[in-house]
Specification:
The complex is a heterodimer. By secondary structure, chain A is mainly alpha-helical. Chain A has one domain. In chain A, β1 and β2 form a beta hairpin. Chain A is globular and about 55 Å long. Chain A starts with a helix and ends in an 11-residue tail after the last helix. Chain B is mainly alpha-helical. In chain B, 70% of the residues lie in helices and 1% in strands. Chain B is built from 13 helices and two strands; from the N terminus they run ααααααβααααβααα. Chain B has a two-stranded antiparallel sheet with strand order 1-2. In chain B, α1 crosses α11. The longest helix of chain B is centred in the N-terminal third of the chain and has 32 residues. The C terminus of chain B is likely disordered. Classes of the chains: A mainly alpha, B mainly alpha.
């Protein structure tokens, strides 16, 4: 049971890091970004490569993951989504483009994994990284639990401070609210959005560092987190940043606790993804504003 | 390459082309003409394939009086070979095993398509796309874990319904069946696109409220088109399963849907010639890279390169030529109007055919 709770908390931390980025991208460009899962994988391989080269723990390489995820996301904004948005592409066109971006990133990482395995001589597919253990209040917990919680907390709080306590944050929220008006008030909307995309990607990249400590990793692993992350956004209420974070913990804990309960009834845990998929469909149909309807109307 | 290899390469390319032509045609009607992102395409494609995987071995065993012993996932391939041997002596059995899955899959696909039109009326287009993708992945997750259906990750064996023919004729018969189905599906799409109904679909796509104000029953239209598109995808699934000779749930991922969308966008949304062009471009890239992959010196699997190129192609087209290779054009829907080209594009909605929205 402790294992399940630990797993649920770590998983939810990572979902929160992804979901808030997805929300930010929905708000800035109206794109449901299907490439965001692959940005997570980019962060994973960046940190893994750095840790092999520098001979340090992957945890120490989180800055590399932040940078790699941020840059990939920023490039996708500058080269693909911003031009398409300006050309008047609808949300579905942008979504199709994001699937293409995701495929380019994913298969580039597949190719990179082959090259990395050859040149560095480490496993780059179907690998897990061994974690250290901590004594916490008399319980043995894996190090990924406090570290992922700390990372998620620090990054989410910094994002909050940035958005609500700085001039850049005011500019970003204004640009989201009304791009034309913001532009006429002298805000460089494209630059502000680009910063938002860099931050979204950086958060996703950071999430990637923790994945190999929990699941068997390969270049497809981030993609498999994408639909649960969308479930978090939808459950939290599309367009609400706070909702996405709350949604991530709701989705993460329900996925693990429900599948644990069902497993005691003899249902295979392999059906676990169905929980978040069902959450997407049910929330959209029954309560389209999700959790955010609790505090805003 | 020897003659046999050339033949089998040509046949497999042509069969795959037909499968993709059906899928792309259905996506073109739904997404290209009506603007409905029917991104559960892989699930409907899978439905047809699952009908074949779940039924041919069991039905064949029933008809030939063989008792199935052991777990389905472990024995389906062995029994498929056994029953194929019976089909070799009895062509009627082969035809029955081809027809029954088709007859089971079609009504199921129509029902599921109608069910999918329920959210289609209530959700914004991008939310609908996400909901359908979630649904499609749910189908795959269930199929890969519920082993009695098509053997889970083991997959299911498929009876060779053409086992009664000798070698060159067998491939040619499969080729004929595939091309007939592929171009049949495309003809359906072409007829709809160039008919008054097609004009109604594009009117709804471009401005739903305006179309409603003109008296179009948008709800009914969406249900009909989704039912038709889903049935077409199921036909493609049946064909694909018989061609592959095996059914594996992990074949029906979101990437499969994406490839079909790619064909429609690359070919040209809203142009009836988009699907054949898009499917050809995809297969040329995919097969072309398989042919030359031994000559490309890269330190990784060349197949990754074909995915990357496909993604780049789609993005470049969206940026530089959003209409696709053959962009949408105002179509002549009345052959008689051919001499007066200028007036052909004028909005004439009277006489919409085939359960169109006239009079509702």
């Amino acid at each position: 049971m402790l294992d399940v709770l630990v797993g649920a908390l770590v998983y939810s931390n990572l979902l929160a890091l992804l979901a808030i980025g997805l929300s930010l991208m929905l708000l800035t460009c109206r794109v449901s970004n299907f490439a965001h899962g692959d940005v997570v994988t980019t962060g994973l391989y960046a940190a893994y490569t750095a840790s092999v080269l520098l001979r340090v723990s992957p945890y120490a390489c989180i800055p590399f993951a932040l940078l790699a995820g941020g840059l990939v996301s920023l490039l996708s904004f500058l080269l693909v989504f911003d031009p398409l948005r300006r050309a008047g592409g609808g949300p579905v066109t942008l979504m199709v483009a994001s699937m293409a971006v995701g495929i380019i990133i994913r298969y580039s990482l597949h190719a990179y994994a082959d090259v990395m395995q050859r040149t560095l001589g480490v496993y780059t597919r179907q690998f897990v990284l061994s974690d250290f253990e901590l004594q916490l209040a008399g319980l043995r917990v894996p190090g990924v639990l406090p570290l992922s919680s700390l990372t998620a907390a620090v990054l989410l709080v910094s994002l909050y401070v940035l958005l609500y306590r700085t001039r850049l944050g005011v500019a970003m929220r204004a640009a989201i609210e009304n791009p034309q008006l913001a532009e006429s008030l002298g805000i460089d909307v494209k630059r502000v959005f680009a910063i938002g995309w860099f931050l979204s990607g950086a958060l996703a990249g950071a999430a990637g560092v923790f994945l190999p400590f929990r699941v068997i990793s390969d270049p497809d692993v981030g993609w498999s987190m994408l639909l649960p992350a969308f479930a978090s956004v939808v459950v939290g209420g599309i367009g609400s940043l706070a909702g996405s974070v709350a949604g991530a913990y709701v989705v993460g804990f329900s996925e693990l606790l429900l599948s644990y309960l069902l497993a005691t009834l003899g249902v295979s845990t392999a059906y676990r993804p169905l929980i978040s998929f069902a959450a997407i469909v049910a929330t959209l149909l029954l309560r389209p504003k999700g959790l955010s309807s609790l505090w805003s109307r | 390459m020897r003659g046999v290899e050339v033949l089998s390469f040509l046949v497999s390319t042509a069969v795959l082309y037909s499968v993709y032509l059906i899928l792309a045609s259905s996506m073109e009607i739904e997404y290209g003409e009506l603007g409905l992102p029917s991104f559960a395409k892989a699930a409907f494609f899978a439905l047809g394939a699952f009908a074949v995987g779940a039924l041919t071995v069991r039905l064949g065993a029933l008809l030939t009086g063989v008792a199935l012993e052991g777990e389905f996932k472990l024995v389906s391939y062995r029994y498929a070979t056994l029953i194929s041997a019976s089909v070799a002596r009895n062509p009627a059995l082969g035809l029955a095993l081809f027809a029954v899955p088709l007859l089971v899959a079609l009504p199921l696909a129509v029902l599921m398509g109608l069910a999918a039109s329920y959210p289609a009326l209530r959700l914004r287009e991008d939310h609908l796309a996400i909901a359908l993708i979630a649904f499609s992945e749910s189908v795959r997750v269930v199929a890969r874990n519920y082993e009695p259906l098509v053997g889970g990750t083991f997959g299911a064996g498929v009876v060779d319904f053409l086992a009664w023919l000798r070698s060159p004729w067998k491939e040619l018969a499969l080729l004929a069946v595939a091309l007939a189905m592929g171009f049949g599906a495309w003809l359906v799409e072409y007829r709809i696109s160039t008919s008054p109904l097609g004009r109604v679909l594009r009117a709804v796509r471009d401005d739903e409220v305006a179309a409603q104000a003109y008296g179009m029953d948008v709800a009914r239209l969406r249900a009909q088109i989704l039912a038709l598109g889903s049935a077409m995808a199921a036909v493609a699934g049946v064909l694909y399963a018989f061609y592959a000779g095996t059914v594996n749930p992990d074949d029906f991922t979101v990437s499969r849907t994406f490839i079909v969308v790619l064909m429609v966008v690359v070919g040209g949304r809203g142009n009836p010639f988009g699907p054949p062009v898009g499917a050809a471009v995809y297969l040329l890239l995919d097969r072309g890279i398989t042919l030359v992959k031994h000559y490309i010196p890269v330190p990784f699997d060349v197949n990754y390169l074909s995915y990357i190129l496909m993604g780049l192609l789609l993005i470049l087209l969206l940026l530089k030529r959003p209409g696709g290779i053959v962009p949408e054009r105002p179509l002549l829907t009345l052959r008689r109007a051919l001499p007066q080209r200028g007036s052909a594009a004028a909005p004439q909605q009277r006489g919409a055919e085939g359960g169109g929205p006239a009079g509702t």
